[in-house]
Design goal:
- The structure holds two protein chains of two kinds.
- Chain A has 18 helices and 31 strands.
- In chain B, α2 crosses α5 (about 145-155) and α3 crosses α4 (about 125-130).
- Chain B has two domains: about 5-80, Beta-grasp domain (Ubiquitin-like (UB roll), Roll), CATH 3.10.20.30; about 90-155, [2Fe-2S]-binding domain (DNA polymerase, domain 1, Orthogonal Bundle), CATH 1.10.150.120.
- Chain B has five helices and five strands, in the order ββαβββαααα.
- Classes of the chains: A alpha+beta, B alpha+beta.
Chain lengths: ~750, ~160
């Protein structure tokens, strides 16, 4: 680290103080005076025909201001790769908790009573609870008219399969035939919920000029705008989304759930309408992680070299496609990479079932794939009698290597991450009885798309950075961004003002998501700041009569390097800028990764951009009498290119790993016959201080050129990906039995221990 | 609808008198009558700990306590910690140690930490884990929160006065 640089320093994020004092305003703290309260009436059945629905008694209740039923809307489907989901169910309900009607009233209690008074009758339909039977010929179709849906042309669909993604390279059958050993395995993963501590909340307003405004604690305002505009059948420029403070999102707050509802109710009543999603409804009908079933088959030579690898992943996407087609394709990259695989075949299926529409949660498809792949590779290593660390070192991709999709990898810190994580838990040193150590590695993408940043000066000469997306907790917007701006401009951190704007201000941004926020907002800000710095030097050059090339920005002034007495303050330059020239809008659209198109069919996320590499290592102790797992040590090494703010990075790594520990050991969105059963945080178990050790975050820096500012790569999603696999491998070593389904609860482990004992 | 009831509460050293629904929780009164929105709301059943406040110095889930039952007691919320612009040492420690991400759980954690440090000025890690087990944080993995508690313990965090 250079002594005078801000890059690599643990500066304090700008929102820390107001969050510590309770002054920060979250979505849940935002109320418009006079706003109506509103609720969603949800389906009490997992699959049924609506044979009667009558809102008469609800509408007659004093204090009810509007009731909206599915049939009151024109035929409309939410946007996405497969457009199959109406905002409100019309004739058929396809999952327990599906929205059926909306009620707005003077108070929440009246709205709830109004919802109870809606007269509704159902005729139950057969319930499809699991994806495998849904794929069989003759299975009842959840969407009998699936062929008529508007869908992305490249998506291969058939009946209950709303996407069949495929990756093929070489000839796996020949590879298996030429292998010394072929190992197969089956794995399954349960759905887990994001469980952001702040609920989902929105307020809709019909403005005097007919524009509909929605205030929302969303991570992705422009996508919410598209969805609200779609449902309202209004042009996008007549819809405005105002981002509110976010108390946790993790992908859950990317897709519209209640925003179109408050917009519809506001337009119907002419009043501001407020709605939030109570925890019970969030856990019933939110957008949790996709459950999966994965089959793997790998052929190896005696020396451990992988010759052929085949993977099949079934993604349960619930009643609607949502992001399921994308997740099915993610398997093409996550069940193959970052390894050197000469012959490979992947098939991924997104399949409809009568469950909630599973959605985006921190690294969608990642932890499921890696749990299966890295568990399976430990089995392969064991069968060969090779140490799992050694097996991985022999097969991982290095600098310049090609992976399954044909992508050439650069800036690969994988070996270093693997070795450092292993060393952190004393890999290779023997453990006591019922203790075990496990490793898992992987890679992930940095989601690209556009970020737009506007930089200008305020009257005091501070740099105002306009952005189109909200801070969601990671520190990408309120931590890394001011640091990058201050470093690029040569100004103080306190002289950077972040201005989060609504969608009407034109600063289009693909949101606080996808491991991209610091990367692409930072990239846009760096570009903007370089241009603004040049403009400031030109203006100062005119004022001072000194060549622009001899000037630099220091503190709040532009000064001459040679003659420090020649200087002009940024405030003076800002005030003299009567023509508004000292303002720069910069769009960052990074170059996507190159890959071999001919290897992929129906894969919507075909390559990982500016990929980052990571390895987690866990040491566990299993109580053989109860099956209870204690995570004793956990180390997570991440190659993030360049560490702009190590403390923020450690926070991302530790937090993501804790979520992964929850997925590994306790979290499960449970269904029984299509009904949700654990819809509170007593029955849905979340990790607490008692479950999570002091996770050691290890920062590895292999920057790549042309990507993020100062060489940084993505980070945020990745730390949640490896923990289930690392812990599964540690448990297998502790008890000598492999658990192949998530979560690995004490009950499941105890059964496995007892079954193994009775076999002996 | 229940008839209203008049109650007197002492919050952050200030007396308040108000008419409320007798079934109102302390959380509801703090947020919706007194507009002290720093105390956070979600599960309403004592699972998440986001609504933790101090009642006579002890950490309590305000979503589980009827407001009327808090009469005659000293209620402290996150807004009552800073003294004349100077933050409480526990607030300082949470900021300095990077224990705050989305921050929605932060007020609850800070209140639980103050309760802990009053009883155990030099807590062991086991005491820290036990004291904070009723507060859910989904962002930090608790590591930097523990660091903040240890740091505050070393810097007079047990004191109620800044």
């Amino acid at each position: 680290m250079k002594p005078d640089t801000l890059i690599g320093r643990n500066t304090t994020r700008q929102d820390a103080r107001e969050k510590a004092t309770g002054e920060f305003i979250y979505g849940m703290d935002f109320r418009l005076p006079g706003a109506l309260e509103s609720v969603v009436l949800r389906s009490p059945l997992p699959h049924a025909r609506i044979v009667k629905i009558d809102a008469g008694r609800a509408e007659a209740l004093q204090g009810v201001r509007a009731v909206i039923l599915g049939r009151d809307l024109p035929e409309v489907y939410m946007n996405g790769p497969v457009e199959d989901q109406p905002p409100l169910a019309v004739d058929i309900v396809r999952y327990f908790g599906e929205p059926v009607a909306l009620v707005a009233a003077d108070t929440l209690e009246i709205a709830q009573e109004g919802a109870r008074l809606i007269d509704i009758a159902f005729e139950p339909l057969p319930v499809v609870t699991e994806p495998e039977p849904a794929m069989l010929p003759g299975a009842p179709l959840l969407h009998p008219h699936w062929k008529s849906y508007v869908a992305d042309e490249q998506v291969v669909r058939d009946g209950n399969v709303c996407c069949h993604a495929r990756l093929q390279n070489g000839d796996v059958e020949r590879g298996f035939a030429g292998s010394d050993l072929v190992v197969e395995g089956d794995f399954s993963t349960a759905s887990v919920h994001q469980s952001h501590v702040e609920p989902r909340v929105a307020t809709g307003v019909l403005e005097a000029d007919g524009v509909v405004t929605v205030y929302s604690n969303t991570q992705l305002t422009i996508w919410i705008r598209s969805q609200v505009a779609r449902v309202l059948r209004m042009p996008e420029d007549r819809v405005r989304i105002v981002p509110l403070g976010i108390g946790g999102g993790f992908g859950s707050k990317l897709y519209a759930q209640i925003e179109p509802f408050v917009a519809l109710l506001a337009r119907k009543t002419g009043r501001a309408v407020h709605m939030f999603t109570p925890l019970e409804e969030e856990l019933t009908a939110g957008l949790p992680r996709h459950p999966t079933r994965i089959h793997l088959k790998t052929g190896v030579r005696r020396d451990g070299t992988i010759v052929a690898h085949q993977a099949r992943m079934i993604v349960d996407c619930g009643a609607y496609a949502g992001s399921g087609p994308e997740v099915a394709g993610i398997g093409a990259l996550m069940l193959t990479g970052p390894y050197r695989l000469p012959n490979v075949l992947f098939d991924g299926f997104a399949v409809y079932t009568n469950k909630t529409n599973f959605g985006a949660y921190r690294g969608p498809g990642g932890p499921q794939s890696v749990f299966a792949l890295e568990s399976h590779f430990d089995v392969v290593a064991d069968r060969l009698g090779i140490d799992p660390l050694e097996f991985r070192l022999r097969n991982i991709a290095g600098e310049g290597d090609e992976v399954a999709n044909g992508q050439i990898l650069l800036g690969v810190g994988l070996r270093e991450a693997l070795e450092k994580a292993a060393a952190a838990i004393d890999w290779g040193k023997p453990s006591p009885a019922f203790h075990g150590k496990g490793l898992a590695l992987s890679w992930w993408t940095t989601t690209l798309q556009k970020s737009t940043v506007r930089v200008s000066l305020d009257a005091e000469g501070r740099c105002v950075v306009g952005v189109g997306t909200q801070e969601m907790g990671t520190g990408g917007v309120m931590g890394a961004l001011p640091q990058i701006v201050a470093e690029t401009m040569g100004i103080g951190m306190d002289d950077v003002v972040i201005d989060v704007t609504d969608t009407s201000k034109g600063l289009w941004d693909w949101g606080s998501q996808g491991s991209r926020t610091a990367f692409n907002l930072g990239r846009a800000a760096q570009g903007a700041c370089i241009a603004l710095t040049a403009k400031l030097k030109r203006a100062a050059s005119c004022a001072l009569g000194v060549g622009a090339e001899l000037l630099e920005i220091k503190g709040r002034s532009v000064i001459s390097r040679a003659r420090p007495e020649a200087h002009i303050s940024l405030a003076t330059l800002a005030r003299s800028d009567t023509r508004g020239e000292l303002c720069v809008i910069y769009e960052s659209i990074p170059e996507p990764a190159k890959y071999r198109k001919e290897r992929l069919i129906s894969v919507l996320y075909p390559a990982f951009h500016y990929p980052h590499f990571h390895c987690h290592a866990a040491e566990v102790e299993v109580d053989p009498e109860t099956g209870q797992v204690s995570v004793l040590r956990f180390a997570a090494a991440h190659d993030i290119g360049t560490a702009v703010n190590p403390s923020l990075i450690e926070g991302q790594i530790q937090g993501g790993a804790a979520q992964g520990i929850g997925m590994a050991l306790m979290e499960e969105v449970r269904y029984k016959d299509g009904y949700r059963t654990n819809i509170n945080w007593t029955d849905y178990k979340l990790p607490t201080t008692m479950d999570v050790p002091d996770i050691k975050a290890i920062i590895v820096e292999h920057p790549v050129a042309g990507g993020g500012p100062y060489g940084l790569k993505g980070l945020g999603e990745a730390p949640a990906i490896e923990p289930p696999a690392a812990i599964a491998n540690a448990i297998a070593r502790a008890i000598g039995v492999r658990i192949t389904s998530l979560p690995m609860t004490a009950e499941k482990i105890l059964k496995a221990i007892r079954a193994a004992r009775s076999e002996k | 609808m229940n008839s209203l009831m008049n109650i007197h509460l002492r919050v952050n050293g200030h007396p308040y008198s108000m008419d409320i629904d007798p079934s109102s929780t302390l959380l509801d009164v703090l947020r919706n009558h007194l507009h002290l929105s720093g105390t956070k709301e979600n599960c309403l059943e004592g699972e998440c700990g986001a609504c933790t406040v101090l009642i006579d110095g002890r950490a309590v889930n305000s979503c589980l306590l009827l407001a009327a039952r808090a009469q005659g007691k000293e209620i402290t919320t996150i807004e009552g910690l800073a003294q004349g612009g100077t933050l409480h040492p526990v607030q300082e420690a949470f900021i300095r140690e990077g224990a705050i991400q989305c921050g929605y759980c932060t007020p609850g954690f800070i209140m639980s930490t103050i309760d802990l440090l009053a009883a155990h000025p030099e807590p062991t890690d086991a005491e820290i884990d036990h004291a904070l087990a009723g507060n859910i944080c989904r962002c930090t993995g608790y590591v930097k929160i523990r660091q903040a508690v240890r740091a505050a313990a070393g810097r007079g965090g047990a004191s109620h006065e800044a």
